[in-house]
């Protein structure tokens, strides 16, 4: 509805390709997994080429693979210049895909700002940064080398390939920590603010209101 009949086949093919469902175009939806059905729902919303896309908890109930696929679609739509409103109880997801955030508790808006401003405004002490490596780290490398890098205030080994660093909040200071990590040649593949930061801020703010 709302799409000229002559345009419908092309538009349907395009949106199915965008959500990675083109190979299942002629299959019955009833046979799809929940993640596949979620992608079909997003495709249906994209058929009309909207400027604004509203997603209500798009990853709820999905397995890790399904969640990753939906997040990838959201990030791709951002590249197309769409304005996306997304509600989610999974705050790590918000950190991963959103530029701006509004936190609501029991119908009350706690704050609305860019994600960077929120973490800078409400977090205390050092910034929490997660560093991911391509191969497992020796614990001695963590406590004996990474922990003593300039700018690293604390370090926690989260799993064999991932550590959480306490570092200064300034971009220049964090860039220096990143440069030092790369120089160690330990196979660093990711360096970004911890997804737990927003969850901590949210819990702090609702505790103040209780």
From TrEMBL:
Residues 9-59 form the ABC transporter domain. The keyword Transcription regulation does not apply. Keywords: ATP-binding, Nucleotide-binding, Transport. GO terms for molecular function: ATP binding; ATP hydrolysis activity. The keyword Nucleotide-binding applies. SUPFAM superfamilies: P-loop containing nucleoside triphosphate hydrolases (SSF52540). Belongs to the ABC transporter superfamily. This is ABC transporter, ATP-binding protein.
